[in-house]
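Dear colleague,

Thank you for sharing your sequence with our group. We've completed the structure prediction you requested, and as agreed, I am returning the results in plain text so they can be pasted directly into your records. Please verify that the sequence below matches your submission; if there's any discrepancy, let me know and we will rerun it promptly.
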Amino acid sequence: MLQSRPWTFCLLTLLVARSASAGVADLPDIIPGRWFEPFLPEDLPALTFPEYFNDLDKARMQVRTGRSKQALYTLYRTPPSDDRAAIEVEALLRLGRADHAAALLANSKLPGTPAGELLLARTAILQNQPAKAITRLTDLLMTHPDSLPARALLGELLEDRGDVTAALDVYNWVADPKRDYVSKWLGHKEQDLGSADDILAIAACLNREAYLTSRYAKDRSLHDTILSMFVRVYDMIDRGNPEAHILTGRFFLAHDDAEQAMGELQAALKINPHHADAWYLVGLISAEHFDFDRAELATRQLRKVIPDSRQADLLEARSLLQQRQPQDAMAPIQTLLGTQPDDPESLSLLASAQVLLWQDQAGKETLAKIEKLTTNPARAWFEVGDQLGGMRQYKKSAAMLQHAIELAPWMSEARNALGLLYTQSGDEAAARTTLQAAYQLDPFNLRATNYLRLLDELDSFARKESPHFIILYDARTEGFLADEVSAYMEAQYPRISGLFAHEPTDKTMIEIFPSHDRFSVRTTGSTWIATIGASTGRVIALVAPRVAPDTMGQFDWAEVLRHEFTHTVTLSATQNRIPHWLTEGLAVSEEAAPIKWEWIQMLTDAVEKNQLFTLDNITWGFVRPRRPADRPLAYAQSYLMCRYIRQKYGDAALPKILTALNNGTPEKPALRAALGIEPSQFESDFAKWMKQLVATWGHDKAATGKYSVLVKRGEQLIEEKQLAAAQPVWEEAAQLRPMDALPHQRLAGLFLSHTINKPLQAADHLVLLDKAELKNNRYSKRLAKIYQQENDLPQALDFAARATRINPWDPDARDLFATLLTASGDTAQAQRQKQVAQQIRAAEARPAHSHQPATAPD
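Please find the predicted structure tokens below.
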């Protein structure tokens, strides 16, 4: 059967060519159904049709619902007609069979009619001949200016080519007040506007005309009017129209409302699970929001429908660029350019990949080529500038986005991207000016609105400035915390900047947000991101580390800020050219906590199964994890790779690597220059070091069996109150598995018991537990009390201070710290801790809706 497939379309084409006005339906009766096997099945259940449906009605519905192959089969014995030919062509186009559609059209009576010319134009687009489609549509509108779907398609093609003036001429015909489309619609005279397809075309043209002329800023009611056109088509006029849902999704997406856009696209796919346009937009949204698995699914679905799908290549290229894999993106980009070498969108993606690969001259040459091909290359400059912004190349990105705005003052998305850039780089005054301009152009843009609200909130924040940091915070809730953050980070500054032999040019801004959703908007523009701290370069954003319905709970803010400030320094030292694994590994290595308990078994398995990442694929572990353990494994391995470099080559190797990266040296040559060995040798040496390291963790099969026996015995002895006998059992377990928390927890409890009562030996185990605990200060407080009892005041003070960092809103921890400070003679700081404790208790006693300030004491 498979061997017969290549002949099927040859036979079909031959028979189509011999028929004057028909297509698949003219196949002779002697040809069995198996000849249609390439068209079937489509993995969709058969439809149930009304009794009054004829075969044309059935085929039309099959095409609409993603069953184009079944539609062709339904039309097998349908008498020749123009309607049948149009449905056949539509089905073939949905399947990507443009050549067969062209042959069928050439032998039908459709050419010369508005519907036929529109089908011919769509066929030319699918044949990678957009110029031919533009010519055909232009000629059609000369004789049939009221062919509204043709007008909408022509305008879109002209915009894609960068001919904005010509596109606006096309749209202006619809927007002309004398045609009175808006008034008719508002007067509920939709029947005077034509068919559902005509109404969708009117709405699309009005939307693009409003965008290109900034009409939304002058007439805000137009937004709801156009939206109602899209919605009413699928809700009332033509229920179940997937095109209406897709156009509504595009409308929302143009206003940066991805959530509502995705809802419309899901509705379209529920009607037609094989709709290429819907899958393409789903993929774009997913890639932009770093959901690369869904973007890859969309790419697969596109190729399932149309094997050589141009949309699939575009989506794959965009997804790879978003994943910061420009070298990998080159393959689909070259495929795109192979079929359309002068396509501005494909060339824009090429320029983006080139500049992300630090091939600035090549990128400039590609942009120059686009400028020769288009009358307005603004979108290309925006495309490249936006990609550079994602790579935190702020200066280059800003220049390109500003040029895009100069070329297209109406381009609100360029202003939004530039506004985001300014917020991430800490220039909030410029961000406000830029975003206000974007909001004026498009008052309905969700991202611009979110950012402007955020800037209003930041304007209300208090500000504390020190030699190297600027702390912005909500004085109503985080007043006392700002002082502590400022003092702590100034103390950490010399060590971290000295380690990397680099000091950032500007002061680092630390913004403490009282709610997680505002922090998320600050970081990504969306209201959710699954983290508590983030560095965008100069700016570090942090969720307030307290328990509240709209936060992420308490955590050791000092650990988080050391991590994020390390990002700030290494990004600054390399002009943001540092590989993902290296900046993350160095940031984790600056945390005081030991290797996480949950990483131990994962790393052991990776070493035993030879599944450690290589330099070539470790970034994929962060951005495209294939297994649930890939992302944490990428973090863990990155940390250990940096630890290995520091141990083997010394801390002096770190500035050498960063300097090479700053000079534009790629990752592997930079490692070669700094370490004096080939990257392949580095990988091999690191793998050997890892084998030696994991061998000390006691998670191999033999050690695991012995450990399990010890744990069972130790638990039994504790249950039987034989604490003295339990001690050596748990000590053996701790020696066998020094990185496991359980033996240390049990030994700490045993040494603190009245039976054994050896608090200093308990402290040895509590210290290990405390270093690993970032969200609970119980170990810190207990250690402070132990050392207080042992008259070791310096140790007691250290752990009491840590207890207030892990949970700044713990008044008991503040009281303990105050007591110890008093004993040390620091009465001023002791008084401050007492006042903070009082403020916390007072705040806890106030109603939840109260916003009485909780400022730091003088």
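Summary note from our side: The two ends are 86 Å apart (CA to CA).

Kind regards,
the structure core
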